[in-house]
Amino acid sequence: MAINYKIGNESLVKVLNGASQHLCALLEKQGRLTEGALRIAVIGGGCSGLQYKMDLVDGPRDRDIMVESNSVRVVIDPKSALFVSGSELDYSDDLQQGGFKVTNPNAAVTCSCGESFAA
Q1: What is the pLDDT along the chain (119 residues), one digit of tens a residue?
Q2: Cβ atoms of residues 59 and 37 within 8 Å
Q3: Nearest 10 degrees: CA dihedral of 80, 84, 31, 34?
Q4: Strand, helix or coil for residue 111
Q5: Residue 108: predicted pLDDT
Q6: Of 4, 89, 2, 3, nearest to 39 (Cα)?
Q7: pLDDT of amino acid 45
Q8: Cα–Cα distances in Å, from 31 out to 27, 71, 103?
Q9: Using CA atoms, how far apart are residues 93 and 117, in angstroms rounded to an integer?
Q10: Neighbours of 36 (CB within 10 A)
Protein backbone atom coordinates (compact mmCIF):
# COMPACT_ATOMS: atom_id res chain seq x y z
CA MET A 1 0.00 0.00 0.00
CA ALA A 2 1.40 3.38 -1.00
CA ILE A 3 1.97 6.06 1.62
CA ASN A 4 0.32 9.35 0.74
CA TYR A 5 2.59 12.22 1.81
CA LYS A 6 3.51 15.67 0.55
CA ILE A 7 6.93 17.09 -0.29
CA GLY A 8 7.75 20.32 1.51
CA ASN A 9 10.74 22.65 1.31
CA GLU A 10 13.11 24.46 3.65
CA SER A 11 10.57 27.24 4.24
CA LEU A 12 8.88 24.71 6.57
CA VAL A 13 12.02 23.53 8.39
CA LYS A 14 15.71 23.93 7.65
CA VAL A 15 18.38 21.61 9.05
CA LEU A 16 21.64 23.43 9.83
CA ASN A 17 25.11 21.83 9.48
CA GLY A 18 25.57 20.76 13.11
CA ALA A 19 22.20 18.98 13.23
CA SER A 20 22.76 17.41 9.80
CA GLN A 21 26.11 15.89 10.79
CA HIS A 22 24.75 14.53 14.07
CA LEU A 23 21.56 13.13 12.49
CA CYS A 24 23.44 11.48 9.61
CA ALA A 25 25.75 9.79 12.15
CA LEU A 26 22.76 8.56 14.21
CA LEU A 27 20.89 7.28 11.14
CA GLU A 28 24.01 5.56 9.83
CA LYS A 29 24.57 3.88 13.21
CA GLN A 30 21.01 2.51 13.01
CA GLY A 31 21.43 1.41 9.37
CA ARG A 32 18.76 3.87 8.17
CA LEU A 33 20.90 6.51 6.45
CA THR A 34 19.23 6.20 3.02
CA GLU A 35 15.57 5.75 4.05
CA GLY A 36 15.39 7.02 7.64
CA ALA A 37 14.09 10.41 8.70
CA LEU A 38 13.74 12.68 11.71
CA ARG A 39 10.15 13.12 12.85
CA ILE A 40 9.43 16.48 14.50
CA ALA A 41 6.10 16.79 16.29
CA VAL A 42 4.60 19.49 18.46
CA ILE A 43 2.74 18.16 21.49
CA GLY A 44 1.03 19.70 24.49
CA GLY A 45 3.15 20.07 27.62
CA GLY A 46 6.27 21.77 28.89
CA CYS A 47 6.57 25.03 30.81
CA SER A 48 5.01 27.19 28.07
CA GLY A 49 2.24 24.88 26.82
CA LEU A 50 3.80 23.24 23.74
CA GLN A 51 6.95 21.20 23.29
CA TYR A 52 8.87 19.46 20.53
CA LYS A 53 9.07 15.70 20.23
CA MET A 54 11.76 14.25 17.96
CA ASP A 55 12.25 10.63 16.90
CA LEU A 56 14.21 8.80 14.24
CA VAL A 57 11.75 6.93 12.02
CA ASP A 58 11.81 4.71 8.93
CA GLY A 59 10.11 7.35 6.74
CA PRO A 60 6.93 9.36 6.26
CA ARG A 61 3.44 8.26 7.31
CA ASP A 62 0.15 9.05 5.60
CA ARG A 63 -0.54 12.81 5.35
CA ASP A 64 3.00 13.74 6.53
CA ILE A 65 5.03 16.51 4.92
CA MET A 66 8.60 15.47 4.10
CA VAL A 67 11.38 18.03 3.74
CA GLU A 68 14.86 17.18 2.52
CA SER A 69 17.34 19.64 4.00
CA ASN A 70 21.13 19.42 4.25
CA SER A 71 21.17 15.65 3.43
CA VAL A 72 18.53 14.86 6.08
CA ARG A 73 14.89 13.90 5.60
CA VAL A 74 12.51 15.51 8.10
CA VAL A 75 8.87 14.39 8.40
CA ILE A 76 6.19 16.47 10.09
CA ASP A 77 2.47 15.84 10.53
CA PRO A 78 0.17 18.59 9.13
CA LYS A 79 -0.93 19.87 12.57
CA SER A 80 2.66 20.22 13.83
CA ALA A 81 3.66 21.90 10.55
CA LEU A 82 1.42 24.86 11.46
CA PHE A 83 3.58 25.47 14.56
CA VAL A 84 7.07 24.86 13.11
CA SER A 85 6.85 26.65 9.76
CA GLY A 86 10.03 28.67 9.19
CA SER A 87 12.00 26.89 11.94
CA GLU A 88 15.67 25.94 11.92
CA LEU A 89 17.10 22.85 13.58
CA ASP A 90 20.64 22.94 14.95
CA TYR A 91 22.75 20.84 17.31
CA SER A 92 25.08 21.90 20.11
CA ASP A 93 27.65 19.90 22.10
CA ASP A 94 27.40 22.36 25.01
CA LEU A 95 27.35 20.51 28.35
CA GLN A 96 24.64 22.70 29.89
CA GLN A 97 22.39 23.46 26.92
CA GLY A 98 23.52 20.74 24.49
CA GLY A 99 21.40 18.72 22.10
CA PHE A 100 19.05 19.55 19.27
CA LYS A 101 17.67 23.09 19.30
CA VAL A 102 14.73 24.42 17.29
CA THR A 103 14.74 28.13 16.45
CA ASN A 104 11.07 28.86 15.80
CA PRO A 105 9.90 32.28 14.51
CA ASN A 106 6.30 31.38 15.51
CA ALA A 107 7.09 30.99 19.21
CA ALA A 108 5.55 33.96 20.99
CA VAL A 109 6.88 32.76 24.35
CA THR A 110 9.77 30.40 25.05
CA CYS A 111 11.03 29.16 28.37
CA SER A 112 14.60 29.05 29.59
CA CYS A 113 14.89 25.27 29.05
CA GLY A 114 14.51 25.87 25.28
CA GLU A 115 12.31 22.81 24.86
CA SER A 116 8.93 24.46 25.32
CA PHE A 117 7.09 27.33 23.66
CA ALA A 118 3.74 29.05 23.17
CA ALA A 119 2.50 30.11 19.76
Answers
A1: 788 999 999 999 999 999 999 999 999 999 998 889 999 999 988 777 888 999 999 999 999 999 999 999 999 999 999 999 999 999 988 877 778 889 999 887 766 555 667 76
A2: yes
A3: 100
A4: coil
A5: 78
A6: 89
A7: 80
A8: 6, 15, 28
A9: 22
A10: 20
Q: What residue ranges do the domains of the chain occupy?
A: 6-118
Give phi and psi for 109, each to the nearest 5. -135, 135
CA 109 remoteness from chain centre: 19
Query: 7 with 33: CB under 8 angstroms?
Result: no
Q: Reduce the DSSP state of residue 47 to 3 states and report it.
A: coil
DSSP assignment letter at 4? -
So what CATH class is 6-118? mainly beta
On whether the CB atoms of residues 105 and 39 are closer than 8 A, the answer is: no
Instruction: Name the burial class of residue 65, with classes exposed (0-12), middle (13-18) and buried (19+) by CB atoms within 10 angstroms of its CB.
Output: buried
- Identify how many contiguous H helices and E strands the chain contains and give both numbers: 2, 10
The span from the CA of 1 to the CA of 20, in Å, is: 30
